[in-house]
Amino acid sequence: MTQGPVRLDVSVSYALPRVGLPAAVSFRRWVAVALDGRIREADLAIRIVDSKEGRALNRHYRGKDYATNVLSFPAEMAEGVKMPKGVKMPLLGDLVICAPVVAREAREQKKLLAAHYAHLTVHGVLHLLGWDHEDDKEAECMEQLEREILAELGIADPYAEQ
After folding, report:
1. Count of beta carbons in the 10 Å neighbourhood of residue 129
2. Angstrom distances, CA of residue 24 to CA of 37, 64, 108, 135, 141
C-alpha cells in the first residue's frame, strides 16, 4: 500500500470553471503516489489554466507559441534568499496544466480524461524531481517510471499503442 510522503502540501488552483475537471483531492493523490519512496516532504502548487494562459506561459518560459499540456517549474532558491513566510521546504515547484489541451489529447488518444490528467500530473512531478526526456535513454527511463506509478493508481500504460 502506497503511503506517500510524510508531509505533503499540494495547493491546487483553477483559473477556469471546474466543471469536468478533477478535484484537488485527485491531484493530491496522484502527486503522493508519484513521490512515494522518492521524497519524504514536499510543497508544490498545481494551477489548471485555459489555452490563453497556457500559451502565454509556454511562449514566455519556453519560447514556444502554443499551449502545451503541462509545464513544470522546479523551485530554485538563490543562495541567501529566505523562504517566504508560510512556505516550507522542500519546495518542489509548480505545475501548470492546460485543461483544453488535456481534454483534446484525451479525446484524440481515446483515453479517459482522469487517466490523462493523472499521467500528466505524474509526468510533471517527475520533472520537478529532476527527471527529463532529452534523449532516448532518459525518455525510456522516465516513461518506465511513469508506467510503474500509474499502475499503482490502476491506470493503464499511457504509452501503449492505441
Report:
1. 17
2. 22, 28, 25, 33, 28
What pLDDT does residue 83 have?
A: 61
How many whole angstroms separate alpha carbon 19 and alpha carbon 112? 16
Residues of the chain short of pLDDT 70, as ranges, are 1-5, 77-89, 162
Residue 65 burial by CB count (10 A; 0-12/13-18/19+): exposed, middle or buried?
A: exposed
Cα–Cα nearest to 95, from 43, 144, 147 = 43
β-bridge partners, 70: 97
Fill in the DSSP letter of residue 66.
Answer: S
pLDDT at 133: 86
What pTM value is reported for the model?
Answer: 0.89
Cis peptide before 5 (omega within 30 of 0): no
CA distance 70 to 58: 9
**How far is CA 40 from its chain centroid?**
18
